[in-house]
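Reviewer 2 asked us to include a model.

Predict the structure of this chain.
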Amino acid sequence: MRTHLTRIIALVLFAVVGCGSEAAGGAGGHSSAPDTKERAGQVAEAWDGSAAAEAYSKGYYPMQGPVQRPEGGWRDAEDEEAYATQNFALSAELPRTHKGGKVTWQSGETLTLDLMGAREAYETLAGNSGEGPRLTVTGAELGEMTQATSRGPATVPAWLFTLEGYDTPLKRVAIGPSRVPKPPIGPAAEGVSADLWDLGGVVEVAGDGRSVTVVAHHGACDDGPAVDVLETDGSVVLSGYMVGTDDGLCQDSLHAQEKAVELDRPVGDRVLLDAFTGRPLGPARH
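Predicted model (structure tokens):
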């Protein structure tokens, strides 16, 4: 069974072999899209009605990152660089609190989870204090923000960090996700995974839930990534693969690209699954 580590090793081999070559252990070329239905069906069948799906339906699983930038975004390239490099300075005393944090969904359902302290939340943002552009935090208070989750939009507790030079705060979710239950199915077997590639997470769920944007992978000299979708009453299974690999897998490096996937109906509280890994998709890492 192929693991993420062996897939990374395979990418290195592909880079050494170069374009137009057939890599050892690869599937060979195909000019048409692979048949993703069988594997997607297996994943859907394993999850639908399972104990894992039941547990997943009761937890808090965000579908977007934990940070919201100030309204209007960064004022200049220097502040954008400071955020990207996590270069922050703190010029205020951060509040202390040990209260639980409540998640509230539009349905009225709630879930109380451990609250992340302001200091811990700040440290997830500020991984650097070196030279170069820097964002200065001048205060913080506990508030709320809206976040897309596996159960639809929810209001979640958030630390609101005041930044020097900004009228609106930088928001950071003040709770962590629930523990993901053990998947009822493992990653795709070797023969299947030759065509499938794991997805890099969810970038955005449309407000009406009718489309999902995910990070898909492709190589340096193919025609880009594609994502197939299989919808059931309990799940939405997404299958990522590369297009235009008729000369064999050929890549100098692995590239990531955002792909929007249209759904027949809103994703709602259905589990969003990756066909390759057999696991729920979480927010993309930036």
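Residues 32 and 107 are 43 Å apart (CA to CA). Residues 1-31 have pLDDT under 50 and may be disordered. We have added this to the supplementary material.
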